[in-house]
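G., the chain you wanted modeled:
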Amino acid sequence: MRILIAGLGDLGTEVARLAVGEAREVFGLRRSPARAPGGVTLLRGDVTDPGTLELPPALDVAVYCVAADARNEGAYRRAYPEGLSHVLGALATESPEARVLFVSSTGVYGDAGGAWVDEETAPAPESFTGRAMLEAEAVLERSGFDGTSLRLGGIYGPGRTSLLDAVRSGRPFPAAAMDRWTNRIHRDDAARATLHVAEASSSPPTLNVVDPHPAPRHEVLEWLATRLGQVIVTSTDRPARTGNADRRVSSGRLAATSFQFLFPSFRDGYEALLRGAPSVSDGA
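Predicted structure as tokens:
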């Protein structure tokens, strides 16, 4: 298999490392001169500038997991619908038969009042971030490529410890958000699921990538506080708009592909972080 990883950030790098470990021929596209993981052929290019995109021929799979360079609407449009469109244009010339995976977000669903949502639920994003992701999904759907949008929940794991750090600091949390459901995926499982889908002979047009056990925010925070010897303090501050959505995201369709989670709940994943367990790329 010849696989392109467009975007060698935290997730893309982990996918690339796993693919190299499976003896795949891996190309990594990034705009910075930073080194690629061992065994990865680095391609320099900027997804926002189609003139810089020179892709190798005969790719079997392309994974688009670029990160926006700022948290504003313009940056998200450039990184997602526009950037994906540019990469698809380059693929159309060199690898028209490639399968394409777009790393999207469960933010496309919007608020569900705590109810379950799955891939058949009509998207209703409430923020510019979710709208940009949904627009990029539509770009892929219209492209003619065999493609799947992977809707990831909140990623945590090595290097992604903001919630742990917040609990350790004693920072107050908005009381209004404590009962809302949260959905997450450990970084290692996100990478493993991405490669799992990439190597499948076929996949559905959308696929939720979250662990199978959503949990209310207060349950997560109280468990972490107990493990850290802290006390959760709440405030009357309004929660950030991006944290307003209340939904439970089903990963049943992913489970039906025989994917096995290393960290099926937040307890499993955060326990590994607290114990300093190595990631899959370290040989775990």
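The two ends are 24 Å apart (CA to CA).

Shout if anything looks off.
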